[in-house]
Amino acid sequence: DADVTQTPRNRITKTGKRIMLECSQTKGHDRMYWYRQDPGLGLQLIYYSFDVKDINKGEISDGYSVSRQAQAKFSLSLESAIPNQTALYFCATSDPGQGKKETQYFGPGTRLLVL
Amino acid sequence: DQQVKQNSPSLSVQEGRISILNCDYTNSMFDYFLWYKKYPAEGPTFLISISSIKDKNEDGRFTVFLNKSAKHLSLHIVPSQPGDSAVYFCAASAYSSASKIIFGSGTRLSIRP
Lengths: 115, 113
Fold this sequence. Notes:
The structure holds two protein chains of two kinds.
Chain A: E1 4-7, E2 10-13, E3 19-25, E4 31-38, E5 42-51, E6 54-57, E7 65-70, E8 73-78, E9 87-94, E10 105-106, E11 110-114
Parallel strand pairs in A: 2-11
Antiparallel strand pairs in A: 1-3, 3-8, 4-5, 4-9, 5-6, 7-8, 9-10, 9-11
Chain B: E1 4-5, E2 10-14, E3 19-25, E4 30-38, E5 45-51, E6 56-59, E7 62-67, E8 72-77, E9 86-94, E10 102-103, E11 107-112
Parallel strand pairs in B: 2-11
Antiparallel strand pairs in B: 1-3, 3-8, 4-5, 4-9, 6-7, 7-8, 9-10, 9-11
């Protein structure tokens, strides 16, 4: 079973609609992230959370909100979707423990198309 | 302004030869560098990393070289295999914000027979 799962894997929606992307992890990591990938731009950080009570904005948080429902769950919402939010969205987790530099573990991605 | 740059969007290498992927960075605060590999319809997976206190890290067929004075790192794959065909992302982070990783735009590596 995958350690980091994302639902849905694909979604088509219309401009102005509210949409939620969900992420679950079984790795037991405290830290979770949402990224978007656009062609030619790599991955850009939208929001991140270091624990259930901690939410932080990333590079491109405008138009997005998040909810950390539990250690294992981190959801991303587009309150009113617009076409330039069409992208590939990735959730990731990490564990800062033991003084090691962190490695992030990614889910399979959600492909979102906003018409 | 991109802090991590991968200037080659694509690279084609013959099977068995060496693949060299390059990455440049601008932020002198970066002290940890990573390479991720991504197959279609999958999320990126961690490949190899290097701390700024080293100039080389090797893991099997994969070696990462870091040139701090030039703010440049490279990933060498020897020998290249068909399964290495993927998109490779260079990434960097600073100790002060270790969880915030800045990604490059990726290089698509194709290994030809």
